[in-house]
Structures are given as structure tokens and as C-alpha cells.
Specification:
By secondary structure, the protein is an alpha/beta fold. The chain has a domain of 129 residues: 3-Layer(aba) Sandwich (Rossmann fold), CATH 3.40.50. The protein is 34% helix and 14% strand. It has a seven-stranded parallel sheet, sandwiched between helices. Helix 4 runs parallel beside helix 5 and helix 6 packs parallel to helix 10.
Length: 259
């Protein structure tokens, strides 16, 4: 994706600023390499992005479908209390037809997506668009979640909240990475009541459906987790390293002029 030819890359992050900004940093990196980037999100989220983006980045606005229980003003996790996230997941999934229509009417070569859009790789494959999963989570977190085969086809990553508070059996190196019980809270934190699909299963389906998995990690800090993750995921995948903000005055200027 780096040389030989200039590509058209679409990017579709989850509706949270902790995801939007790392995706935007990758988009900026690709644009500076000469690739065209279509950055897909909802109007309110795009309006809050920095205004001084490279000209080869096109912002693609898709209105967020309305769902019962989700206020009309809400378009990201920052706009709501945590217990309303399942409604946002449902609205996000309802973006599927609009995203597919955009891809069908464009010349996109690659779709870089987030961990939530489990439904997208199958659609991109039919359109001749290659899929990549960009995980903002580090290798240690992904290893804790487990191999994709454990997360899909009806298999269960955790039957109880307590199962998520211990280091899983497939981790072969010393670590204390696990949830604390108060962080797990309850099953609803991980289960989407509408689709009956956990965030773990969403991630597993994406890993299986994508040609590439990019991880925000580096061997200097996570040598053992990265080595194990390669075994759990298989090839092809690559680590990206850290996302360091490089967008000038990104904290001062946004598209709507609000800091």
C-alpha cells in the first residue's frame, strides 16, 4: 500500500473520537504519500475534525440512521452516557447500505475499517475492494481477546464476567493484562442486545474477513505479545507503531471553527 501505484483508500472508523483521530492520522500519512483518501463518518463527527487536512483527503458524510432510544443529537460515544452505547452500535450497523453504496459508486482500492463493522469485509469482497482492519488497541489487548476462531461460529470468549478477569490459557508469557471486575461491570458492556453479538465476536469476524490486520504496537514494547499475536492471527498482518499527532494546530482549529 506504500509504493508502485497511487491508491484510493476509504477509511471507516467507529463513532468515537479515540478511534476517529488515530484513523485520521493514518489517513494523513497515506495522503502525504500521494494516495487519495475518503474518510467516512457522520456529519457531526466530521465537522469536529481539523480543518487543515491534506487536499487529497475527502470527507464523506453519511447521516447516522435514527434508532429508538438514541437522541437525534448523538453521533459519537462522547455525546452519551456509557449505557447508551448499544443504541449507537445499532445505528452504526444501519450505516451498512450507505457505506456499500458509496463503495459501489467509487474507485476505492482498499477499505480500512475499525473493529465494529463486522459486516463490511463480505461486502467489500463482492465489490472487488480489499479490506484491512486497523486496530487502535495494542498487541497485549488483542492477545487477551484471543484467536478469531474462538470468537466466531457460536463459540464463547467468556461465559461470566469473572472469566475476563484472569489471563487466558493461550497466553504463553508472564503478564497481568486482564480486566478488573469493576471494569467489566456486566454482560451488557460486551454484548450487543440488538444483534446478540459481543464486541469480541465482531472483532473475530473482521480479522477473518480482512486481508490485512494493522496493529498499533511496536516490538520494543511488546515483543512477546506481537510474536504470539502473529501465531493467533496468522499472515498477512503487520504492526504499525505509534500514532503521533502531526496535524498542525489540530487542537486549536476544527472544520466548524470550534476548539
Amino acid at each position: 500500500m506504500e509504493n508502485r501505484e497511487k491508491l484510493h483508500v476509504a477509511m471507516f472508523p467507529w463513532l468515537a473520537y479515540g478511534h476517529l483521530m488515530p484513523f485520521l492520522e493514518v489517513a494523513t500519512f497515506l495522503a502525504r504519500k500521494g494516495h487519495r483518501v475518503s474518510f467516512i463518518s457522520t456529519p457531526k463527527n466530521l465537522q469536529k475534525l481539523p480543518a487543515n487536512l491534506p487536499p487529497s483527503i475527502t470527507l464523506v458524510e453519511l447521516p447516522l440512521p435514527r434508532v429508538h432510544g438514541l437522541p437525534d443529537s448523538v453521533e459519537s460515544t462522547s455525546d452519551m452516557p456509557y449505557n447508551m452505547v448499544p443504541y449507537l452500535k445499532k445505528a452504526f450497523d444501519l450505516l451498512e447500505p450507505a457505506v456499500v453504496e458509496f463503495l459501489a459508486n467509487s474507485d476505492v482500492d482498499w477499505m480500512i475499517q475499525d473493529f465494529m463493522s463486522f459486516w463490511l469485509p463480505q461486502k467489500t469482497s463482492r465489490l472487488g475492494v480489499k479490506s484491512a482492519l486497523f486496530s487502535i488497541f495494542n498487541a497485549s489487548s488483542l492477545v487477551f481477546v484471543g484467536p478469531p476462531s474462538l470468537l466466531v461460529d457460536g463459540q464463547v470468549r467468556a461465559k461470566t464476567a469473572e472469566d475476563l478477569t484472569v489471563v487466558p490459557e493461550w497466553v504463553t508469557y508472564p503478564t497481568k493484562v486482564a480486566f478488573r471486575l469493576h471494569e467489566v461491570m456486566n454482560e451488557e458492556d460486551f454484548l450487543d442486545s440488538e444483534s446478540n453479538m459481543s464486541v469480541f465476536e465482531r472483532g473475530g469476524k473482521l480479522v477473518q474477513g480482512c486481508e490485512i490486520v494493522a496493529v498499533r504496537a511496536c516490538s520494543e514494547f511488546e515483543a512477546e505479545p506481537l510474536s504470539l499475536l502473529k501465531k493467533l492471527y496468522g499472515d498477512p498482518w503487520f504492526r504499525r507503531g505509534f500514532c503521533c499527532p502531526r496535524i498542525k494546530d489540530a487542537t486549536k482549529e476544527t472544520r466548524d471553527g470550534v476548539s
